[in-house]
Specification:
This protein is of the alpha/beta class. The protein has 3 domains: about 5-205, no CATH class; about 240-420, P-loop containing nucleotide triphosphate hydrolases (Rossmann fold); about 470-605, Rossmann fold. It has 18 helices and 23 strands. It has a 6-stranded mixed sheet, with helices on both faces. The protein has a 6-stranded parallel sheet with strand order 12-11-13-14-10-15, with helices on both faces. It has a 6-stranded parallel sheet with strand order 18-23-22-19-21-20, with helices on both faces. Helix 7 (about 235-240) runs parallel beside helix 8 (about 255-270), helix 10 (about 305-315) crosses helix 11 (about 330-345) and helix 15 (about 475-490) crosses helix 16 (about 505-520). The longest helix is centred in the N-terminal third of the chain and has 19 residues, at about 95-110. The chain is globular and about 90 Å long.
Length: about 600
Amino acid sequence: MAILIPSLGFARFDTRGELRLAERLKDFLEENAIAWHNLPVGPRSRHPDFIIVHPANGLLVLEVKDWRLESIVAADKTKVELLTSRGIVRETSPLEQARKYTFEVVRTLERDGQLLFPAGHRFMGRPILPFGFGVVFTNITRKQFDQTELKEVFAEHLCVFKDEMTESTDPEEFRSRLWRMVYPRLGEPLSMPQFDRLRALLFPEIRIRQIALPLDEAMVPDPSDRTLAVMDMHQEQIARSLGEGHRIIRGVAGSGKTLILAFRAEHLARAATKPVLILCYANGIAGRLEDAMQNRGVEDRVQVLTFHAWCYRMLRTYGIPAPSEREYPDYAKRLAASVAEVVKAVDQGHIPTEQYDAVLIDEAHDFEPQWLALAAKMVNPRTKALMVVYDDIQAIYKGRERPVWKQLGIEATGRTTVLKVNYRNTAQIVAFARRFASDVIGAPGTTADDEHPILLPEDAGRQGLVPDVRQCVSIDAEAHCVAEWFLGRKKAGYEWPQMACLYPEHWIGERVAQVLTKHEVPIDMAKNNKNRVSTKRVAVRLLSMHTAKGLEFPCVAIAGLGLLGRHGEPVEECVRLTYVGVTRATHEALLTYSSESALVQRLIA
């Protein structure tokens, strides 16, 4: 059974014949074959009916026609005349159309060069992937075709007919008919990196690098690199198959939740008549998504804000006085008062609802139920485009209740997608995080909406080093340990922007910063730009553990873990925060402590 993208229940078929063919492709093609339906392909955004790729058999473009034999008045190699309710109309030959689409794809491969046979090879400059094209006539049988002169126009081996794509058709015979349209293979089957590169060239929107990570902005991609980071097949299928209405995405750390949210935001923005709103809790992830929208060319249609920044914007826009520092000296209470003012103004009609064609909420596990209900009211009822993304284990702010979606005006029943596989971290980092947080992330019970409350992460199999936990005699000693580790990572080939140091309290970060400076390690502290991570400086990032949510770096050090919980925070909250911190590391992690605590006992157990 092949993978169909979008999946069968969410694809939009122009004709019944396209639907029938999609069903046959899904059921009859090989397990490792992928079929994309009616998606824009390449730099010119062509829309072939189907593109099918198999690592060994090649790439096939199919055009589908529901024409009946009696409606075809005349045909030649390039044009077809059809009898319609509007009279006789001329259309491009579907075979010629498929051929043009195919060679547009080939030109895309040739411009990139990495999927061509190299210099010195006897097939130098030719695609390593065999390719072909064909047409499917869903209302004409082969016998009818053979009795006409159409075979002079349409090569028989490039056609599939109605009677060759029924439910009772032999799958092997069906596959054989399709793959004989493809030129013989000249080399070895595509490797997985080559297959991912092909997908990235066909569909640039699935490239992960389009979500601006600190590493991506600071480093110039190597043009000789033969791999491109892309969504995995499951992520792409989910992103393209979400359908309309309210949608919930639940996923573990590193499963691609934010990636899918950004993909969805871009898709909705291109069809929106009103603005699209992305809401986050932390500034760090807001900055990352803001960059992503800019890179995707939809920054003028998508607003990216933290929830509290959005509340202040609403108050300013509609002339409602915001709570002042004099009234509320405590910053947290001032934020809460601003939210209350917005809720009150919405209830009284001073701030209008339904302002956005779509609202997408990242880090929803850090939102209070009242905030989610308020955001839901801002969605245009015509589009009903609300997307909520969350992960229970990353709920690091105390006092947050698990939402009961129905009570908040969110129609989540049967609309929840679950992502369990962690693609960000190595198997060793995932295992380490699961071990010390096992009783927290494996808590029994269900939510009021009958969802299992906690997702257990499953690693994607990428191997690496076990996180290093080191005991030091003081915070200063921890800072020196972190500095030496970063210097070692630099010698190992990592660049400064690929490293980050996280800390539970700002004074610890300042102490680490002083020591790193003495060791001539370039640093960039997030507090200097409102907690948004700078992507311009070639430096090690220093971030609070809370600020790091949603970000990732190859090498992450966490200092001062022994002091977590010293202000009375429950152990569970410290565990969640440490889980978030450790899972920011994609390759290597260092954890240091100089004070014993319940959390430390978990780490060294």
